[in-house]
Amino acid sequence: AERTYIMLKPDGVDRGLIGEILARFEKRGFKLIAAKLALPSKEHLEKHYADLKDKPFFPGMIKYMQSGPVFCMVFEGLDAVKTGRAMLGATNPLASQPGTIRGDYALAVGRNICHGSDSVENAEKEIALWFPDGTLQYRLSQEAMIYE
Ligand code: GTP
Ligand code: MG
Question: What pTM value is reported for the model?
Answer without folding.
Answer: 0.98
